[in-house]
From TrEMBL:
<dbReference type="InterPro" id="IPR036629">
    <property type="entry name" value="YjbJ_sf"/>
</dbReference>
<dbReference type="InterPro" id="IPR050423">
    <property type="entry name" value="UPF0337_stress_rsp"/>
</dbReference>
<protein>
    <submittedName>
        <fullName>CsbD family protein</fullName>
    </submittedName>
</protein>
<feature type="domain" description="CsbD-like">
    <location>
        <begin position="4"/>
        <end position="56"/>
    </location>
</feature>
<dbReference type="Pfam" id="PF05532">
    <property type="entry name" value="CsbD"/>
</dbReference>
<dbReference type="InterPro" id="IPR008462">
    <property type="entry name" value="CsbD"/>
</dbReference>
<dbReference type="InterPro" id="IPR026042">
    <property type="entry name" value="YjbJ"/>
</dbReference>
<comment type="similarity">
    <text>Belongs to the UPF0337 (CsbD) family.</text>
</comment>
Length: 65
């Protein structure tokens, strides 16, 4: 699924994101709003990932949806 689709369906995608990244709070998921750059930033912050690794994980997650 591409990021435009994820952003458009974010309400239903939040549960899947929460299942993948349990450290993200509901408020943080609301702030992300399906935006790739926001998700990447939160993954970096919460999980201590480098930007490239966070981008890889976010894109892999999107591809699996």
């Amino acid at each position: 699924m591409n990021w435009d689709q994820i952003e458009g369906r974010w309400t239903e995608m939040k549960g899947k994101a929460r299942a993948s990244w349990g450290e993200l709070t509901d408020d943080e998921l609301d702030q992300i709003g399906g935006k790739r750059d926001q998700l990447v930033g939160k993954l970096q912050q919460k999980y201590g990932l480098a930007k490239e690794e966070a981008e890889r994980k976010a894109d892999k997650w999107a591809d699996e949806q």
